[in-house]
Amino acid sequence: MIDLALSNGQAFVWNAEDWLTLRKDYRIIGELVGCLPSLPRQEIFHGLPLLLSPEEVTLLLEKKIARLIELPCLQQKPSDDLMKAFNSYREKMLIEQEECLVETRKAQIVELMDKIVEGKRRKLLGLKSTKKELRKPLDDSIAEAIKNVEIDRDALFAEEMKKIPKLDPAEALIQIHTAYPWAKKEDIREAEWNYPQSPEDKLRCKVYKDLWEKEFYITPGDKFGGDFLVYPGDPIMFHSQFIVQCKDKNEDITIPDCCGQCRVACHVRKTMLYAYTSDDEQTISYQSIHYENSNMI
């Protein structure tokens, strides 16, 4: 099951594979709220963790797709065993990066070996080997002298390899984990989810579940004054079609509210839907409203 990490009453997804599974297989969108490691100071694009809405969490728990967990160990001082595991991992990462550095530098030396040999020959003859000097044409006698200088390519290659510096730990790349990598079974504790509580929250969950079971993609609708935005496909590729407002079946809607919400929906080329429970309190019914003869729909 997919683990949802509970923190301060909200559920987060930290694992990248779980995020992709939720989006592709279960049409759960959520909201990425983390900064990007390479661009931490910008606010346009976001990364993990994924913050889930209360309705999404309720659905995932009800459908047995995910479980809600807590990691109390993260609130405590790291144990000696955890510190050893962390330091061992850092050392392993440093060794792997050193090996990568050596292999990369080795490939560069092999590629530039002819130029390195030429530069060595010029140095033995007391000639300059700057880029500017290398571009200058040589006299035939000097060119012939350079060719006649014998160089042991293997020895020169070994000499260049010895020049590769050791990787300083302070210069090593640091991996920023998107999920806690050292969690053990005994560290994980299943948490309780106390949502929904109020009648309004229960109605929102029922509406969300009904739309989800109709195979729509659903996101929060706050930006357009609704409860949900409903998409026919992934929001990356589709615009939303409906603005959904959850209403109690006995609740009155004033004319100004109805006109204002309908006008917003019409302006952004969407249909306003009012969702409410039918008489059996289980089935969700919908009422669509839009301006008649509007040239914006």
Overall residue-averaged pLDDT value: 90
Oligomer: single chain
Number of helices: 9
Spans of at least 5 consecutive residues with low confidence:
none
CATH first level of the largest domain: which class? Alpha Beta
Number of domains: 3
SS-derived structural category: alpha+beta
Order of neighbouring strands in the sheet with most strands: 3-4-2-1-5-6
Strand content: 15-25%
Tell me what the CATH architecture of the largest domain is: 3-Layer(aba) Sandwich
Largest sheet: 6 strands, mixed
Write down the CATH topology of the largest domain: Trna Endonuclease, Chain: A, domain 1
Alpha-carbon distance between the two ends: 43 Å
**How many runs of DSSP E, i.e. beta strands?**
11
Give the helix proportion (percent range). 25-40%
Backbone CA Rg = 32 Å
Domain TSEN34 N-terminal: 2-70
Organism: Microctonus hyperodae (Parasitoid wasp)
Domain tRNA intron endonuclease catalytic: 203-286
GO molecular function, one term: nucleic acid binding
